[in-house]
Specification:
single chain; alpha/beta; six-stranded mixed sheet; two-stranded antiparallel sheet; 42% helix
């Protein structure tokens, strides 16, 4: 099979043609046949469906950001992937105070939405974090939430290797800088960042206006489908023996000694 022929074949046909011998020899996994991996119901592995946690970082429970996230959920559902919205709430969320308690417990000493999220995160295969745009940046509460949650997650390497994506909602502008801010957390945690067909943002000042943003809603659905595809691909790889790379012992170099 040459490279010119490959794009014309769908994924199932290509892997079937590779066959037991090629995969077993290349991956060292013996008699596992690629078709056996793909013959499982889409989205179901080891008796359970894959799921994604949609984190709503807006002070409004069912506002513009929520509207965008639920549209991502529709794209996921099309691919037989479940999703749940987690709202961080309206109560003030403090920023990290650099106490170091999480390095021993894996959880923050401030027992609020951050710990609630971390307790749930272990059971999810992917994450989408959404924030409204405040002064061309993330909202205050979701900023503090992300700082603490991702710093705690570093302790036991939680969420590493799991796909993540960001979405923003804005009235007019500031969305790209907010997306950049959100994506930095994923890169720091070693999480594959899922793209869409354009910047994952919606425009509107109310949920009703967001629902009129046809392009924005399409971008959200595409994001959901792309995330499902990547999650399925990662899971198929695991079933063939391809695991997330083992990390070396952390080296931390300070520039000023």
């Amino acid at each position: 099979m040459n490279k010119r022929e490959y794009p014309k074949m769908n994924r199932r046909e290509a892997l079937k043609q590779m066959g037991t011998v090629a995969i077993g020899a290349g991956l060292g996994i013996g008699g596992l046949h690629a078709a056996e991996v793909l013959d499982n119901p889409a989205g179901e592995y080891q008796g359970r469906k894959m799921n994604v946690l949609l984190v709503n970082g807006s002070p409004n429970k069912e506002g513009c950001t929520y509207t965008a996230l639920t549209e991502v959920g529709k794209g996921l559902k099309e691919q037989n992937v479940d999703s749940e919205v987690f709202w961080i709430g309206r109560r003030p969320i403090s920023g990290c105070v650099a106490c170091g308690a999480c390095s021993k417990t894996g959880r923050c000493y401030m027992n609020d939405a951050v710990n609630e999220f971390l307790d749930k995160a272990e059971g999810y295969d992917g994450f989408v974090f959404g924030s409204p745009v405040h002064f061309a940046a993330m909202a205050g509460n979701i900023t503090s939430f992300m700082d603490r949650a991702f710093f705690c997650a570093r302790t036991n390497n939680e969420m590493a290797g799991k796909p993540a994506a960001s979405v923003t909602s804005c009235r007019r502008s500031g969305s790209t800088s907010t997306l950049d801010q959100l994506n930095r957390y994923f890169i720091h945690r070693g999480m594959p960042v899922v793209p869409s067909q354009y910047w994952p943002m919606v425009h509107g000042n109310t949920p009703e206006e967001v629902r009129q943003d046809g392009e924005g809603l399409q971008i959200m659905r595409t994001l959901g489908r792309n995330m499902a595809w990547l999650m399925h691909s990662i899971e198929a790889g695991k079933q063939m023996g391809l695991e997330y790379p083992e990390r070396e012992k952390r080296i931390q170099t300070n520039f000023i000694r």
